[in-house]
Design a protein that fits this description.
By secondary structure, the protein is an alpha+beta fold. 47% of the residues lie in helices and 10% in strands. Among the domains are: 46 residues; 69 residues, Glutaredoxin. The structure holds FE2/S2 (inorganic) cluster. The site of FE2/S2 (inorganic) cluster has 12 residues, from helix 4. FE2/S2 (inorganic) cluster binds next to helix 4.
Length: 178
C-alpha cells in the first residue's frame, strides 16, 4: 500500500486542483486504477487535512488553528464563524455561499489570531471583527447581485435579463450587538 499511497497523493491533489474538491466518482476511478478500495482512498485522503469531498462555497473562510493563533483564541474565532454561518468546519452552507475550514498556520503569526477569507488575510480577529468581515462579504454579494440585476434591467426591457438571485448570500449579515 505504501507505493500506492505515494502515487495516490499526487493524483488526489491533481483532482482537487481541477475540481476544487475530490468528487466521489473520482475516488471510484482512482481506486479502480490503483486496484484498491474506495475506502482505502478515503482513508488516505482523510488522513491529510488538505482534501475536501464536497464542492467549495463561493466564499472561502479559513480559520488558522496554528499555535500562535491557538494561544490567542482562534477557537473562539472559529466558533463565531461557525455560529454565523450555521455550519461546522469542513462544511459548506446550504446555499453554497460559504465554506469554513480550520487550517494550519497561514504564515501571519504576528497578527494572530488570523483568518483568510477569499485569499485575503484578516489579522487580530475578535468576535466583533468576525461579524464585520462577514457583513462586508455579504454586502459585496448584495452589490454584485444588484449590479447583475441592474445590467439585466438595462437590457431590452422584456424582463429576460433580470437577475436570477445567484447571489444567494444576499439577505445574510448580522448586527453588531455584543
Ligand atoms: S499560527 Fe496562525 S498564522 Fe501562524
Amino acid at each position: 500500500m505504501d507505493a500506492k499511497r505515494e502515487s495516490l497523493l499526487p493524483t488526489l491533489q491533481a483532482v482537487q486542483r481541477e475540481h476544487g474538491y475530490v468528487p466521489d466518482e473520482q475516488v471510484g476511478k482512482i481506486a479502480a486504477s490503483l486496484g484498491i478500495t474506495k475506502a482505502d482512498v478515503y482513508a488516505v485522503a482523510s488522513f491529510y487535512g488538505q482534501f475536501r469531498f464536497n464542492p467549495p462555497g463561493r466564499h472561502s473562510v479559513k480559520v488558522c488553528a496554528g499555535t500562535a493563533c491557538h494561544v490567542r483564541g482562534s477557537a473562539l474565532i472559529l466558533d463565531e464563524w461557525s455560529r454565523l454561518l450555521g455550519i461546522e468546519p469542513g462544511q459548506t452552507t446550504a446555499d453554497g455561499a460559504f465554506d469554513l475550514e480550520r487550517v494550519a498556520c497561514i504564515g501571519c503569526c504576528s497578527v494572530a489570531p488570523a483568518v483568510m477569507v477569499d485569499g485575503e488575510v484578516h489579522g487580530c480577529m475578535s468576535s466583533a471583527e468576525v461579524r464585520t468581515v462577514f457583513n462586508e462579504v455579504c454586502a459585496g454579494d448584495e452589490r454584485a447581485r444588484r449590479a447583475a440585476g441592474a445590467d439585466g434591467d438595462a437590457g431590452e426591457g422584456n424582463g429576460a435579463g433580470r437577475g436570477d438571485g445567484a447571489g444567494d448570500s444576499a439577505g445574510r449579515g448580522v448586527g453588531d450587538a455584543g
